[in-house]
Amino acid sequence: MYDFNIAGNRLSGVIPWNMSKLTSMKRKNDGEQLFYNLPVTTKRQERYYGVRHSKMVTIVLSLNFLTGEIPEEIVSLGQLVNLNLSWNYLSGEIPHKIGSMQSLESLDLSRNKLSGEIPLSISNLTYLAWLDLSYNNLSGRLPPGSQLDTLYDNNPYMYKGNKGLCGSPLQRNCSGDNNATKLDNSDQERSAHVPGPMFFHLGLGSGFVVGVWVVLCTMLFKKTWRIAYFRLFDEVYDKLYVFVVVNCAKLARKTPQLIEKLG
């Protein structure tokens, strides 16, 4: 089987795990040509593959009522080119090893209830030309990769409807980035709102400390300055001592007189 298309049949239930036993989708393409027109819905377009096209392997289960998880076994279909499971009620996570489906050119998982993070291995799908994961419940940081960025440029709605997704190229930063940004902004705001008097006192205190150290260091290494300093200190001390003694003597003489007048 090279084209498994049962889209729009109101099917319900889960995707059978033994779908991985579709051997023609696992075997390497041998180049055999198709001799009839084969309609295939891929990249939201219906295309017809005829005599000039090699075997096409595609699974289209869109527009049904399928539930449950995408079976992990589906990743063994290494020759699958188109996988369309959109417009169902699939839940759970995208298979972590989806990157092993190296032949995938179109992957449409939109309009489901898928949750969790987008597997990093999806960046390994080097032939991928169309990706649509819109309108699910996916969360976490987007996987890095230049090819995914190119796909986003071609289809900027491929992540739409997943409010939990973050990171480039979306305009939504992840929580760690927000915290770092908030911390930087708060530091800037605090530095911007430091009051002017605080700057004045900080400058005055630091200037006083620097000045004292300059004087002490100069006196320590220059003898003439040290002698001059102590001489100045002695003169100031003598004058202060004389001033205190004289004023105390005057006060002692005047005290009895004041007492007599008051008496």
Automatic annotation (TrEMBL):
Similarity field: Belongs to the RLP family.
Keyword Acyltransferase tagged: no
Subcellular location: Membrane
Membrane topology summary: Single-pass type I membrane protein
Segments crossing the lipid bilayer: 198-221
Protein name: Uncharacterized protein
Entry keywords, A to Z: Brassinosteroid signaling pathway, Glycoprotein, Leucine-rich repeat, Membrane, Repeat, Signal, Transmembrane, Transmembrane helix
Species this protein is from: Aegilops tauschii subsp. strangulata
InterPro entries attached to this UniProt entry: Leu-rich_rpt, LRR_dom_sf, RLP23-like
GO cellular component, one term: membrane
GO biological process terms, semicolon-separated: brassinosteroid mediated signaling pathway
UniProt cross-references to PANTHER family, sorted A to Z: LEUCINE-RICH REPEAT-CONTAINING N-TERMINAL PLANT-TYPE DOMAIN-CONTAINING PROTEIN, LRR RECEPTOR-LIKE KINASE
Domain of life: Eukaryota
Main location: membrane
Pfam families the UniProt entry points to: LRR_8
